[in-house]
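Good morning C.,

I know you're traveling, so I'll keep this short. The sequence:
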Amino acid sequence: MLFQDRAEAGRKLAERLQDLRGKETIVLAVPRGGVVVGYEVARALDAPLDVYIARKLTAPGNDELALGAVASDGTVVLDAALMRQIGVSQRYLESEMERQRAEILRRLSLYRNQRPLPQLKGKTVLVVDDGVATGSTTLAALRALRKQQPALLVLAVPVGPPDVMARLTTEADRVVCLAEPEQFWAVGQFFADWAQLTDQDVTDVLNRRRAELEQSKKTAP
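The tokens, ready to paste straight into the viewer:
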């Protein structure tokens, strides 16, 4: 195991990101698991924490196989070669995109509680997840966020396969990945504690960080 849990991974990531402290940095965590990692990073950098949601588009009859991903702004990334190989119809694809967009809207409503999206133009945007596997959702998120014209777009994850991380370096201005093992089956294999999180867990973490920032403002000289 590389990490005890997501919180430890977040603290280790934060050590590599200290140069972003005080640079109008906003941490955008990919829920659900990425929110715990993102919380530790945001706290260490004294930065706000929010979420950015992208969802995997799954293959027919196989939820583990990614055809691509869709981001909350509608940006879509597709693996055209895989779709041809397994014979995915346009009708299925449209249905799956609609299903994942509905889930994105559900989560945004739940996690944000009608709060608007943060303004990202000219900011340092730090995208954090608990790991990368195929890279589809991460790719969709980075491409969507690039449209919002951040001053700097950074991706930070504890672990990911070397070939995927190499591809993602072309999408972000900077990529920080603590480990890129050649033998890679799933993100969870690198954590001793890989407990699944609920929507309530995510909401609690986001609220905790917001409360900390409010308290910090009140006590600031």
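Safe travels,
E.
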